[in-house]
């Protein structure tokens, strides 16, 4: 890590995840050995990935199905254990945490929002949102007060006594976001949280997340297969293919200067739109990132956010 590591909340270094039947004992940097491992049925889902995220930044990982993006984000809180590499969070080595430390880390340092909500069907909205605080031993009065605040933040005030089955998909995902927010963690991990929603609801949820980010300035890792979503939400983004980052940068950099043919195919439609709007002297939806004090980026968008 460099001398400026204190400016980064999350640092992932040389991360690998290999799924194999037997214990992995080969040198992962030996191409021939990895080739033999794959020939024997092993799958290299994450391949020597490194990246850093500053506090208050939204870092988007984008790729097609099977690119390894969901495996990567789940390696950060070690819901999936990496095969090799290091994960540092605020100076703490997550890679070396024992089970007790890891449980505490997941409850207090990094909260996750899943694609399929993961709500408890027999508990109300209020009980779902406050459940993590209950596990931490927070008194009922305090946890319900915090949960009510989070529920109001995501626009569900008045729905506290309802059950998940009584909510739409978008509302259920709002509950999932509120459940993550109430933990007041340093890091939010969002694994394709809106991909199962109808387009209009998905757009509303993106707007909701942007609104919350303007208020809370959370540090987020957001996984998606949708370039428009990545461009709309991300301060920086990485395009992932076959377990590797093929390009990393701001949305504007990646759209206007794709690194290879794979990225070019991803961005060509957004590229055309950006060029047309530039010719018409209209702002595009690509985010611009003026630097503010403390190393964070202002959440400015050159298009309309609502």
Descriptive account of the structure:
The chain is of the alpha/beta class and 306 residues long. 37% of the residues lie in helices and 23% in strands. The chain has 10 helices and 12 strands. It has a 6-stranded mixed beta sheet with strand order 6-7-8-3-9-10, with helices on both faces. A 4-stranded antiparallel beta sheet has the order 2-1-4-5, with helices on both faces.
List the helices and strands and how they pair.
Blueprint: E1 8-19, H1 31-39, E2 43-54, E3 58-63, H2 69-75, E4 84-89, E5 92-93, H3 99-108, E6 110-113, H4 125-135, H5 140-153, H6 169-181, E7 187-191, H7 199-216, E8 219-224, H8 227-233, E9 236-241, E10 244-249, H9 251-256, H10 261-279, E11 287-288, E12 300-301
Parallel strand pairs: 3-8, 3-9, 6-7, 7-8
Antiparallel strand pairs: 1-2, 1-4, 4-5, 9-10, 11-12
Helix pairs in contact: 4-5, 4-6, 5-6
């Amino acid at each position: 890590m460099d001398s400026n590591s204190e400016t980064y909340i999350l640092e992932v270094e040389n991360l690998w995840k290999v799924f194999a039947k037997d214990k992995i004992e080969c040198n992962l940097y030996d191409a021939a050995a990895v080739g033999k491992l794959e020939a024997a049925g092993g799958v290299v889902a994450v391949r020597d990935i490194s990246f850093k995220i500053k506090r208050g930044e939204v870092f988007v990982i984008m790729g097609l199905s099977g690119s390894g993006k969901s495996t990567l984000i789940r390696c950060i809180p070690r819901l999936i254990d990496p095969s090799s590499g290091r994960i540092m969070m605020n100076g703490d080595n997550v890679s070396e945490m024992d089970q007790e430390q890891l449980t505490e880390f997941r409850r207090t340092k990094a909260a996750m929002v899943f694609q399929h909500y993961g709500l408890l069907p027999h508990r109300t909205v209020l009980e779902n949102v406050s459940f993590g605080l209950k596990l931490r031993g927070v008194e009922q009065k305090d946890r319900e007060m915090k949960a009510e605040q989070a529920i109001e933040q995501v626009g569900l005030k008045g729905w506290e006594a309802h059950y998940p089955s009584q909510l739409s998909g978008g509302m259920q995902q709002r509950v999932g976001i509120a459940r993550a927010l109430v933990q007041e963690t340093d890091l939010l991990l969002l694994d394709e949280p809106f991909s199962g929603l109808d387009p209009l609801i998905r757009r509303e949820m993106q707007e909701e997340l942007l609104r919350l980010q303007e208020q809370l300035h959370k540090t987020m890792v957001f996984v998606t297969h949708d370039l428009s979503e990545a461009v709309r939400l991300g301060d920086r983004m990485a395009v992932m293919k076959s377990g590797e980052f093929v390009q990393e940068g701001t949305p504007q950099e990646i759209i206007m200067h794709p690194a290879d043919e794979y990225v070019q195919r991803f961005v060509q439609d957004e590229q055309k739109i950006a060029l047309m709007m530039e010719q018409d002297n209209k702002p595009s939806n690509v985010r611009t990132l003026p630097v503010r004090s403390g190393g964070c980026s202002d959440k400015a968008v050159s298009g309309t956010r609502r």
